[in-house]
Amino acid sequence: MKANGKSSLEFDRLLEESFKKRKSIEPGSRWESKVVSIKNDYIFLRTKENQILGNVSTEEFKEVPLPKLGEILHAYFLKEESGDYYFTTCLHGDTITADNLQIAMTAEIPVMGQIAQETNGGYEIRLGSFHAFLPFSQIDLREKGKELYGMKLKFIVSDIQPKQSKIVVSQKKVSERERESRKRVLQEELKEGSFVTCKVKSIHKFGLIVDLDGIDALVPASEASHKRNSDLEKEFQIGESLRAKVQSLQWEEKKITLSVKDFLTDPWANAVTFKESDLLEGEIESIKPFGIFVKLNDSFGGLVPNKETGVPQRTPVNTVFHVGQKVEVVVLEVNPEKKQIALSIAKAKELKERQEYQQYLKSEETVESVSSFGLLLKKSLENKKNK
Question: Rounded to an integer, what distance in angstroms lies between the CA atom of residue 387 and that of residue 384?
């Protein structure tokens, strides 16, 4: 009798626990769950809270890789049937029923659909056996301009009007949610100095806008190339994958700054071909209050301080020189450690004048030499004639 009493109490306890579990899990509730088994038709998972064993159809992962054992998924509870708990990460195929669509709208569960055709003000979407409407305003900007017909995307059900048999969906909400989710992951993982892989989205004079796992980041022009005033459109292509280093993270301002210089060949890493006293021709890149920046070639440039421009002290430099002007300069100093080259226009002028003067002296000597020889030859010829 005691044993039977104990068994009865144990049964009552288990029944009460089971009842509590069922009561605590509502359709549409979101659960952090661990993948514990993978079969042909179902993935079995266990919720971290309450340890409820449930399943998700493998049909949901036709468009994406199957999760791995031990992986954490965020799944939504749909129903309990004959002791089995059915979850979903995204309504798909046969799981898109009228009841589930109502749950999906309330709980904002993603629904997989296919873009059928363009209609007035948007697109017609196939959701399993249902048809829905996607307004143009609810398309993610990343997708606009693409050929959308036939694409399979995730949507959020915004409105259901049974009398009009109308379902309205949003693709924009899903993209925003996914970006926020990736942002949270990146906030935990990224640190200044981390190395990442990104993809070029657009190219501008100020730098590259790149996609960093769904988040926009900037590679400033100064960090995109070792070349001075380089043409980024010639050096990079949209869609190109790059390795980069995280320079700064400003999450509140939504600013992530990267550099790709560490993965490019630095011209300063090799022996610099310029040396002191070299006379070179360059092109003025910019004029600053303290001097003139001169481009020597695609990789190197230098600074001509104001005192080395040859311009009188009270005369504005920009009244004598202009951007794009060709100038001759002399190398004053090459500093590989600071990656700086000091130049002089004044000394280039002095050197040029000195060279021209020396050339003049040589030409004068040659003229005198030829003239003396001519006189001697003439005299010699005259002597022979007289004989």
Answer: 5
Full-model pTM: 0.54
pLDDT tens-digit readout, 58-108: 988 887 889 999 999 999 999 988 889 999 999 988 889 999 999 999 999
Q: Which amino acid is at 375?
A: L
- Contact (Cβ atoms closer than 8 angstroms) between residue 43 and residue 66: yes
Asked whether the predicted pLDDT for residue 1 surpasses 50, the reply is: no
Identity of residue 359: Q
Q: What is the mean pLDDT of residues 182-193?
A: 86
The answer to whether the beta carbons of residues 201 and 213 sit under 8 Å apart is no
The answer to whether 187 touches 251, Cβ cutoff 8 Å, is yes
Q: Which of 137-146, 199-208, 340-349 has the lowest mean pLDDT?
A: 137-146
Structure tokens at 364: 């004068």
Cα angle at 327 between 307 and 358, to 5 degrees?
85
Are 161 and 169 spatial neighbours (Cβ–Cβ below 8 Å)? no
Residue type, 116: A
pLDDT, residue 264, reads 79
**Inter-residue contact 63 to 19 (CB < 8 Å):** no
Distance CA 116, CA 340 (A): 60
Residues 6+ apart with CB under 8 A from 364: none
The region that residue 34 occupies, defined by phi over 0 for left and psi between -120 and 50 for alpha, beta otherwise, is beta
